[in-house]
Amino acid sequence: MSTTVEAATEIRPFHLEFSEEQIDDLRRRIAATRWTSKELDESQGVELATLQALARYWANDYDFGRVEARLNALPQFRTEIDGLDIHFIHVRSKHENALPLIITHGWPGSVIEMLEVIGPLTDPTAHGGDAGDAFDVVIPSLPGYGFSAEPTEVGWDPAHTAEAWAELMDRLGYTRYVAQGGDQGAGVTDAMARMAPEGLVGVHFNFLDAAPRELLMAALNLRLAFSEEDRAQFGKFTGIFMRGYLTEMGEHPQTIGYSIVDSPVGLAAWMLDHDADSYEKISRAFLDGTPSGGLTRDHVLDNITLYWLTGTGTSAARLYWENSRAVTAAIKHSPPHVSLPVAFTVFPGEIFQAPRHWVKKAYHNLTYFNEVDKGGHFAAWEEPELFASEMRAAFRSLRDERRSS
Amino acid sequence: MSSTVETATEIRPFHVDVPEEDLDDLRRRIAATRWPEQETVRDQSQGVQLATIQALARYWATDYDLRRFEARLNAVPQFMTEIDGLDIHFIHVRSPHENALPLIITHGWPGSVIEMLNVVGPLSDPTAHGGDAEDAFDVVAPSMPGYGFSAKPTGTGWDPVHIARAWIELMRRLGYTRFVAQGGDWGAQITDVMGAEAPPELLGIHSNMPGTVPPEVSKTLAAGPEPSGLSPDESRAWKQLNFVFTKGIGYATEMNLRPQTLYGLADSPVALAAWMLDHDARSYEDIAAAFDGHPVGNLTRDEVLDNITMTWLTNTGISSGRLYWENTLGFFDVKGATVPAAVSVFPREMYQAPRSWTEQAYPNLIYFNEVDEGNHFAAWQEPEIYTNELRAAFRSLRDERRSS
Prior knowledge:
The complex is a heterodimer of chains A (about 400) and B (about 400). Chain A has about 400 residues and is α/β, with parallel strands linked by helices. Chain A is about 50% helix and about 15% strand. Classes of the chains: A alpha/beta (about 400), B alpha/beta (about 400).
């Protein structure tokens, strides 16, 4: 609890430190894992061989100091918004006129996903870009994720988080900024775009969060003519529902919560089972040592280790419960349309490759649309350079307006 | 692998013997549980509540006798026999009475033969339990593949239809030429399938979770809207099932799609206990009440922990969940049983099957009764009511048996 308004809106530097005891306990638990029998079919979930390879590498070869070292190498802060401490990374570009950008991660991700894009975005001249491409980057941890506090009351749905992000950018003194997100981060960014807070001039998505509502409605009302390509993508879109985590965390996050807070391999398996493409890539990283881009064993374990050591598996899962309530509410009271400029990048390994007219249907003011040739659901994590160059291209027109205004 | 036909079909006595080491490990793990923070609601709408599971863990680690389930199982005759390459564990209690009616009872998920231990006596020995000698049953209660002490399948294909066929084989192997079958939950699906397979030996079936939903109604569940023209009973059933399919299906969806991903169930006793408590809203309420010191019926802390402890020690949390992956039948849909069928409707079951739907679902309905007490775990929670229902349900089939 803060005692004064000053204290509440204060932005405090943050430095993390895990105790040796916590790390020893984690090592002990991994070593003491009681395993289940092998799956009977590869479609039954995370395969035993993959998870055992992960556990072996985690306990024996992985450097547990990595998360601490990587995060502490960056300027991190905490500030209280609506009674909740929000953790964020904030890197200012050395270039003048850098465009402020707030990037929101999703589940089962964290700020760890974004670490490799910070350099290219804030310091473009050191990464093959021009000074005119520079961003100031703000990367918050969602409520209940990583070093942000865990909500103790209901209500932290994507819209509430979107309001908090607008407040955060305001508090940082930014009067003109853009926002980006995939996965749950797309949900938060979509909500920001709909509420259009003062200062937000455009958004970029690498996941079409607006699809479930707009697309399903369109499909039901037959207002969209379904071409062969549409049908193929619609089939892939329904693949979202071919994972149980969505239903379980949407209904009873607390129940699965006991498993993912008490068992490191329980947590790791739950986090690996997001979508077919990323699971295959991560599986290859552990089984064959052939990672896809930035989805290396170390990077994957940085993220899982962060979840474990902060004990946030359950609080992170609750976002789906909140989201499910928000979606139900949105059916009754549809949110305002997005009139801000929207940019969209289609990654080929994403759950579905939204055709341009689906995105256009959801966001009328589509100012940028591009299909790239590599990368999946965890776009920034897997292909940081490609992701950074998409940000540069997507927001270039908004910079021009800025200069001329 | 068996070397001869004789050994394969052999029926071997079975005795549970849990190493002390496994109990020590379990105690250690419960004590070392790392807990999440409390749910952000004040009810069960986010799942198993922290206060409930912590009360369970406390009682489990300190007061509960970890050898209880072992003693209880070893007090009844247990056997193993290999069917289709898989060792099947079963309880088999022959009645002291002549002309006892052979009955095979199938448990469900997250249950086991533990659910049935309190009905074995009343069913097989009615005169010692307020019944008549003519009410006697020979009781066979098998553990489903991947559950308890039955072996875990190492290949796919053990779906409810396969299990139903194995049970028919089991009854034949025991020498029964005429028998009846009963079940709830998965046991109800398997029993319904047996009723559809209708082997000549099967005189009839009884279900406490009947599949009755007409196909055109089933299609509207979770998709909505409620069909027009339903009677008040049907409308209530539709609303109850619609709740199940929209708010209470997460565990089933996960086990249907990705059972293997639930590694925590093998590694964390508390994770397993929570997963097993979260079956349906009403049984959860009753079990939570038990750990709050107010058990409803026979669903006491000890009973609940007997079942969870056996599942932990046999490490069958995930192998039992795989049945959801195997299954292709609609839980509450009509399975096409043609043999004489009896149904008891328990008031706290997930839905109360309307008589109208039940009559359509079972063309040969010989018995339909709505009882006053009991949830999803009918035999477990209300062993007396359940026993009386089975006596009443199958009475007419005994007469036929005698007259034939």
